């Protein structure tokens, strides 16, 4: 039997020229129980889920990807199992490992770490990242990979706050690189995404809005969206058992979700000529 389209959630308002463009963010804290079915996932998602050695990591992956499909289904009206998720070509080498993409005008990004999931949906390329605050040893190990000005900022932070400041910076970098579709493989030190991205002689990447989300004590998160105009980032919370609900009920829950946070993002500065950034190998 062919799955029926889901109820459509409120559409993105990017087509309204009189309103800021919107980036929709969806947070989820998945349960530790097994989803009732993985029938909505494709063969590659099932293969990757089976590859997790730890049961808790596998469950987070399953809940995250079922939630992603149900969310995209609510935006597009296409049943979750019928969504064709693919990888865009890498912008550097052309290989099939760029950003995850969906046919059509909708862009999305997914991140999950230690029991927290974040999904971004926008009308232009988007990247999101969430991760747990690392220990001091991890910070010291990763510091040399940062932009020199970013290293200076982290080292200048009081020692007890250094792990969180580093994590917030690293999360912004991951979100931006995921939005580009390159990932960390092409280095994190070429672009400055520190605390003073548009001051003191430093600039954020041209054509992108990058910001962090705050309010979670054990995790940090960030988003990046390709933009030349002002945007509004709107955060919603998904029901923790969204993957266990019947599909019509899941679509209704998504459509009824009220924003829990709204952030106004001013338009990025007009791009100026500057040297092409180098990328670490």
TrEMBL record:
Gene3D superfamilies: 4'-phosphopantetheinyl transferase domain. Keywords: Transferase. Residues 125-186 form the 4'-phosphopantetheinyl transferase domain. It comes from the Bacteria. The keyword Transferase applies. It holds the Pfam family ACPS. PANTHER family: L-AMINOADIPATE-SEMIALDEHYDE DEHYDROGENASE-PHOSPHOPANTETHEINYL TRANSFERASE (PTHR12215:SF10), PHOSPHOPANTETHEINE TRANSFERASE (PTHR12215). Belongs to the P-Pant transferase superfamily. Gsp/Sfp/HetI/AcpT family. This is 4'-phosphopantetheinyl transferase domain-containing protein. It comes from Streptomyces osmaniensis.
